[in-house]
UniProtKB/TrEMBL annotation:
GO terms for biological process: aerobic respiration; dolichol-linked oligosaccharide biosynthetic process. The chain crosses the membrane at residues 6-23, 30-52, 72-94, 126-145, 157-186, 198-221, 227-245, 257-277, 283-302, 309-331, 411-429. UDP-N-acetylglucosamine--dolichyl-phosphate N-acetylglucosaminephosphotransferase that operates in the biosynthetic pathway of dolichol-linked oligosaccharides, the glycan precursors employed in protein asparagine (N)-glycosylation. The assembly of dolichol-linked oligosaccharides begins on the cytosolic side of the endoplasmic reticulum membrane and finishes in its lumen. The sequential addition of sugars to dolichol pyrophosphate produces dolichol-linked oligosaccharides containing fourteen sugars, including two GlcNAcs, nine mannoses and three glucoses. It is found in: Endoplasmic reticulum membrane. The keyword Endoplasmic reticulum applies. GO terms for cellular component: UDP-N-acetylglucosamine transferase complex. It comes from Pneumocystis carinii (strain B80) (Rat pneumocystis pneumonia agent). Belongs to the glycosyltransferase 4 family. It is a multi-pass membrane protein. Pathway: Protein modification; protein glycosylation. This is UDP-N-acetylglucosamine--dolichyl-phosphate N-acetylglucosaminephosphotransferase. GO terms for molecular function: glycosyltransferase activity; metal ion binding; UDP-N-acetylglucosamine-dolichyl-phosphate N-acetylglucosaminephosphotransferase activity.
Amino acid sequence: MGWPLNSIFFLISAIALIINKYEHPLAISVAFSFVSGIFVFKAIPILGPYFIKVGFYGKDLNKKGKPLKPEAMGIVCSMVYIYIMFLFIPFAFYKYFVMTSGGGNRDIYEVVRGEKTFKLFFHNKLGEYLSAILSLQSMVLLGAADDLFDIRWRDKLFMPVFSAIPILVVYYIDFDVTYVVVPTILQPYFGNLIEIGWLYYLYMAALSVFCPNSINIIAGINGVEVGQSIIISLCIIINDLLYVFRLTGPSIDSHLFSLYFLLPFLGTSIPLLYYNWYPASVFVGDTYCCFSGMIFAIVGIIGHFSKTILLFFIPQIFNFILSFPQLFGIVECPRHRMPNLNLSTGLLEPSMIMFSKKPSLLCRIILKIFSKLGFVRLKIDPITKEIQGTTNLTIINFLLVRLGPRREDKLTIIIMGIQAVMGLIGLFIRHKMAKLIYLNDNY
């Protein structure tokens, strides 16, 4: 049982070599990411039976016999992540604390290694870092409460706003930029910048609501919550590296901050995906959805690229638009909208909701439009021609309507593939097409 002592020794030795060789927080963050991944990989099978014992379990509805599996394993992932981020604090900031000039003025903020100059964190970055962890802890607590008490969706929808308060306050104190850049073609009419004031804070609060909930409503099949989160994090990491490797520009510190949060997240999520992959041995629970979504909102807000973040959420935006009629009561919404398992074929098919009463005029109009677009499959009474039911309005059911029945793992791979392609398109838009719209970029 456990990892062999020689493996632990080599792991610690490798981390020590990385730290001593580079002495840069980014290298240390990579090392901590490996450590966090190993802890999660070993902790999940050990803690799984204890989770079942205390009531954190669920039925795998898309498997024969509906076996019980440990649920809310996102708690393990998020707690390891938070402790790793605490341990990382001295490594991220120690040089800024000790490299001082006379009288204790901390005004040295660059270190030269070879021909490269890396900027160290400014002092206010510590406040941003701690506020981000505070917001994240609050969101993990909400997710755990949801897993424990099964909070209704409408009741928990806006709770992330309260978790976002610490980072919004720090943003106001340290940055407080609330203008948007006007596209070059419109600048002769509106000027270079438009100040939108409190509306920008409203947008950032909405982002903190959207990100966790958008992950949470693409769920119900093995691996899909973690899979989409890993792809999104990889896209943001690539975006960050495109800035960091330039070694010049005002945005490097912000993207380093983003990397420090995303690399350990990737480290903890990959082993969770291993256990949650089809056929899953554990479920991630709402805790992981809240945890992952809040991390994306945090790096977007504190990293000052909150608008860019949405480019990596294109499938989630589509799913939210598609789900809107059910989420807000225009179309009847069941407790679970996951696809159904066909026991004879072993394939997933789109689930349907049969209406308990005649749908409203607005409902019928929306469903007919969605049907024309191929988003849903309707159940029509052959005599009255009235709509009796519809496939549930999710991107998962939409794919099954368009592509036909699929095995669960194949469906997850399709969704992850779509997420990856849309993420690459988002990167292209940000780094190529944006130059056609804006004269200057924030490199």
